[in-house]
């Protein structure tokens, strides 16, 4: 027979440290709608499942407290999300075992409609029917009723006829759960983890990483704590790694596979611990490279951190260091290409496993094969003019736009401050500014909001532009910016053709509408030959030999030939080495590199030609 406990009894046990959380449990993952659904079901006295508790006499690694070494400990296997949500609403704080990103305190109850909603100012402000669930449960019905006389007349007259409904809400504290127990004498730790995995599969789906963490902790109880401590450490520098990411990296380092099944589940604790010892310096090295060389200050600068996993596995298998500067810069370039071309957008696990297998096979320079995989999938790696057209600020292109601006030493147009501090590896340019303000473009006849808000019409600033600037045409303020901040416009790919700064001119407006001039300028400035301070690490199609660059020369509409240092790019069989993403010795560069650049795009480049280079300074 299962035990029964009322909610207030369970919460008191949590408060006293009697109900604990085993270390292999995942963190709090519920969303707002799940919290609302739970409270609504309890209010209506609908069933919401049961709880499962592991009663153990063996000291076990737990979260937020210490298990008893003398008596038994009650470890919660199923019900963490519900108890955490209820504890938060009743107590106004997370439980001792809390680990997660967001808690929800602003649930409200309408005494007239019996509806539960999270706070919405437009609906609830000055509406006396809405009551904060957290505030109400925290004080209880008796205290709430005793304070009615102090409330405004309208609120009191709304609440008093509905006290029965408030009593039902208060009755949540007496809601009863059936509590099942499993015991040490019946199961091993590994079997307990299996039970946890099965019962939790009925609720919010466990990810493979959740299951893998539970498995790791059953063999190595301190693992989760070590992962969390390490994740907080690089967080000081802007790189907090989540547990899913760390587990994937650990699997790749320890077994050469990121699939989190099969051989990984048979990996002994010693191998996992050894992999973790090698993984930590690899990640520390990668963070330093990202922040100071790639100018990527945090995970927010990347569409996903998945593209960091192959480089991390490679570093861990190279004693935490890139063998040389060339390979390091190629890896940076590949990671940015993987982000730009959404390498892991579909069948992510399969493609990630393919890439990890390449870096784990002992090849000291696996980047050509990694780039070739992107070429096979996308057909090209060269960014073209059309890729920027209508690209939103959350698109993969937008992430690279920001990184390129940092490499070109972009500055705030109005303060002169750099948008990125290379010395500290921190971003100072989080503000996006419309070059052509929305109202200016709307007055000029443009109504396409996607084009107005596209990357082509955005630049980075360290703070909001002055209000008068946000209402002005570029023709009114860009001349002053160009005069007071030399090269600031070029650094963020804004054309210096003043005709394009005046949207009211018909010709300029047509070009803004049909082909944003800034796309053309950005594409051209990315692709022109490199000057001082260029970015060979971002060269697309660059040769493996220092100083060599693949150059695209127009041969006519839609046809281009490739040349290297003035010579055809076809390599002789005895040429030796690799040629960027072209593959093995003696290979011809893939046809994708020959590109499909239009005459119009080619005309934007210096002298009509393009060096296939992303981020080169003028």
What does this structure look like?
The protein is built from 25 helices and 17 strands. It is an alpha+beta fold and 618 residues long. It has a 6-stranded mixed beta sheet. It has a 4-stranded antiparallel beta sheet with strand order 16-15-14-17, with no helix packed on it. Helix 12 (269-294) crosses helix 13 and helix 13 runs parallel beside helix 15 (348-359). The protein is flat, with a radius of gyration of 30 Å.
Binned, the helix content reads 40-55%
Strand segment tally: 17
Distance between the termini: 77 Å
Low-confidence stretches: 506-518, 522-618
Largest sheet: 6 strands, mixed
How many helices in DSSP terms?
Answer: 25
Counting copies of identical and different chains, the oligomeric state is: single chain
Structural class: alpha+beta
What form results from the Cα inertia axes?
Answer: flat
Strand content: 5-15%
Strand order of the largest sheet: 1-9-3-5-2-4
Overall average pLDDT: 77
What is the radius of gyration? 30 Å
What does this entry show, briefly?
With 618 residues, the chain is an alpha+beta fold. It contains 25 helices and 17 strands.
What keyword list fits this structure?
25 helices, disordered C terminus, 618 residues, 17 strands, alpha+beta, 4-stranded antiparallel β-sheet, 6-stranded mixed β-sheet
Set down the secondary structure blueprint.
Elements: E1 3-6, H1 7-15, E2 19-22, H2 32-43, E3 51-56, E4 62-63, E5 73-78, H3 80-91, E6 107-110, E7 116-118, H4 121-124, E8 130-132, H5 133-146, H6 153-159, H7 163-170, E9 176-183, H8 189-200, H9 208-219, H10 223-235, H11 243-255, H12 269-294, H13 308-316, H14 325-340, H15 348-359, H16 367-378, H17 396-407, E10 420-421, E11 426-427, E12 431-434, H18 438-443, H19 449-452, E13 458-461, H20 474-484, H21 488-491, H22 506-514, H23 517-527, E14 550-556, E15 559-564, E16 567-568, H24 591-594, H25 599-603, E17 610-611
Parallel strand pairs: 2-5, 3-9
Antiparallel strand pairs: 1-9, 2-4, 3-5, 6-7, 6-8, 10-11, 12-13, 14-15, 14-17, 15-16
